[in-house]
Amino acid sequence: METLDTRGLTALRAVAEAGSVAAAAASLGWSQPTVNHHLGNLERALGATLIARGPRGSQPTVVGGLVVSRAIEILGLCERLGEEVAMWRETQAVPVRIGAVPTVGARVIPRLHRQLQERPRWRTGEAPVARGGKEAATRSAEGPAAALDVTMDEHAKLVARLEAGDLDLALLVSTDIDKTWIPVTLNAEPLYSEQLYLCVPKSVGPIALDAQGLPDLTALVSQTWAFSIDPGDAIDEVVRSFCVAAGFEPRVGMRMDDYAAIIRMIAADLAVAMIPESSLPTDPHIEVIPMPLSACRRDVLLVSRARSVATNARTGRHDAIAAAHAAAIAEVVADVRTVTAQWR
Fold first, then answer.
1. Biggest alpha carbon distance in the chain?
2. Is the pTM of the predicted complex or chain greater than 0.90?
3. Which one of 27, 50, 76, 210 is at 20 to 30 Å from 108 when CA atoms are compared?
């Protein structure tokens, strides 16, 4: 097979995202003949038709869909490679990229940062030390300098970035009814579980509980629910499942990921919501009803890509930077376990 040109992968990804060659050309800043040229080269190299063209645009064929998935990962790794080489060239540091859903990140990342900062090679804001200095010797003993790169986003986007190689780790959430969203290509480690609480305005009045401690949600049929911006949010799926079991579909009146803002909406009689323990309100205008852990909870997971190999299997040559990166990831994983142990 011919050596693949990444420009063909770039063109295919752009067509898949934009829906046509013309739109792809516009998004890339290329001419349409240039896009077609690189697509043609890619199809010849792979020996397959990758794009189905029609009057309403262009879409990947079945095999084209496979190539698009691989192209996203390959191009993501290429982009990351350039950034990592630049960081190594400028600071002799290896980055560890971790993502988190905002509510978990706000709780875990500051503690993780403080834990890492106890080691010299993770300390930020220090000027490079001359070779042979005391600090240089300390860093040499620990390994190359390391840096934590944090992204807060919706869990679906974080999963996609993990699959594309753009993240090493992510702090994500799942629930008892939500077990299948993590791709088999990723590893998931449970860290801790949070109890969920139904939060309603005091004006709604007392809500009866059944023998299992579950609230009677039929009292909330006419209420407006606050849901996450992310359409696949784990807690929202819990709410929906309980409401449907009670005989109604929850009426979603607002979408936001800021629990402080949601709590203000509840206190103002504008919404009801399910809130995790870590964001629980203390406002006297809000009734807080614990959901039984046996019925539902929010599990916080550490999700990761497969570890890279630091030794070339063919030549036996040790890859120092890959080894340093793997060691830095292992440090972050160990510290995430340490800082979350208090909530288990």
1. 72
2. no
3. 76
